[in-house]
Amino acid sequence: MTSNPQVQTVRGPVAVGDLGTVLMHEHVFVVSEELRQSLPETWDERERVDDAVTRLKALAATGVTTLVDPTVIGLGRNVARVARVNAQVDLNIVAATGIYTLADIPDFYRYHGPGTVLGGPEGMTELFVRELTEGIADTGIRAAFLKCAVENELTPGVERVMRAVAQAHLRTGAPITVHTSAVARTGLVAQRVLREEGVDLGSVVIGHSGDTADLDYLHELLDNGSYVGMDRFGLDILLPEDQRVATVAALAREGLAERMVLSHDASCHIDWFPPGVREQIAPNWHHTHLHDRVLPALRAAGVTEAQLTTMLVDNPRRYFTPAGA
């Protein structure tokens, strides 16, 4: 039994008990890497790193001590770049392994692995395990959790990635976060597939659950044992903030704060939108919005300080504590 479990971060291992206040679903950079290389005029490395440092220093000034970054293959993950940012900011950044796809697997795995022409073992699982136990590429930075995605439908590619993630979880004990669509109720699909593989759903965050005010759906996810990610505060274009706040407050009144985690799903830089458009359509979608406006609104809605601590400190600590520790 481990008396002082640790979680891997970009700067090295940190005691789980020292994670402090945690935002459980945030990105530093989300980049379409091949297009970035083909359009060099859209990227200034020094400018982007300096901007990220400024933004994350502002986040650290709110009292947040840990940022959990589910940027994986498919989202332009570059942990060496994140490490350059982290070297200038006193913040724990937790890296992930996994593959983000809403349809097909990367062509690299198309012809080999279970159910393919060439067959053989699942290479994705081997990669995920290596990144959790040895490090990501040659950086020496180890991932601490797994990430996969299912949006509107469970395609064969999405399912294969999800089952590979589940197998890596079973081999390492690393927890899982799943990008889902609350509108399409695909959190339930993710739970079904992961359960079929033998995953303890208490080790899973169903991401983006806060995009709905459908309490019946949220209760179903919670009854299955997972955490729900109320993790897109600031994205009012998907669900207005007053509804997001009211939903968290309603679940907290039912004693369910211990199964919710809070965040924004924001990025220091994301290249999915033309310059200036993100700020135009979602002006509150940034890393300090939770502390600037959401936490006061939750308090006004009746959420207690103890419940906020549960969602921001205790639940992340429990999520990253290995079973049996």
UniProtKB/TrEMBL annotation:
It comes from Streptomyces hokutonensis. Keywords: Hydrolase, Metal-binding. This is Phosphotriesterase. PROSITE patterns: PHOSPHOTRIESTERASE_2. Belongs to the metallo-dependent hydrolases superfamily. Phosphotriesterase family. InterPro entries: Metal_Hydrolase (IPR032466), Phosphotriesterase (IPR001559). The modification N6-carboxylysine is found at residue 147. It comes from the Bacteria.
